[in-house]
Design brief:
Strand content: 5-15%
Number of helices: 4
Shape: extended
Structural class: alpha+beta
Helix content: 40-55%
Number of domains: 2
Radius of gyration: 20 Å
């Protein structure tokens, strides 16, 4: 395959599909208002909502299942999902951040209120799931990395 044919194949693969759907007027107004306030196009807002929603629903279902299993004394199944969801071990780097929303630390399950400091995991592979950890766990990871590099 020539370079121009490969480039044409890449362009075809990157083309996005158009999705048409009917929504009530009130939802249409709400989406347009939200897009304006974010400085984004309606298409981008809808695309981001759809991408985020699938991961969010999956997390809610999995967490609900884990709660039900734990309440009945069974294993929670977190290990069986390790491949389906990026884990802290898959993180290439941590970016410190001040949280704009409430979150939960992926390592210790501590609640992180809006305005607290934490870190966001940066993955080598793209995906919608974001890993957030608290400042304490970030310090532990940084300390372990520092100790390991001193041994080398």
């Amino acid at each position: 395959m020539s370079t121009s044919e490969e480039d044409a194949g890449d362009v075809q693969e990157r083309k996005e599909r158009v999705l048409h759907t009917r929504v009530p007027d009130s939802l249409d107004r709400h989406i347009k208002r939200r897009a304006r306030s974010l400085g984004m196009s309606v298409s981008t807002v809808v695309r981001n909502v759809l991408l985020t929603t699938f991961g969010l629903v999956e997390d809610i279902v999995n967490d609900s299942t884990d709660i039900a299993l734990a309440a009945t004394g069974h294993d929670t199944g977190r290990e069986r999902r390790r491949d389906a969801k990026p884990e802290p071990a898959d993180v290439v780097a941590w970016q410190e951040a001040v949280l704009n929303r409430n979150a939960v630390c992926e390592h210790c399950n501590r609640l992180l209120p809006k305005g607290s400091r934490g870190a966001i995991g940066v993955h080598a592979q793209p995906g919608p799931h974001v890993i957030i950890i608290c400042a304490t766990c970030l310090g532990t990871i940084a300390g372990a990395a520092s100790t390991a590099s001193k041994r080398s």
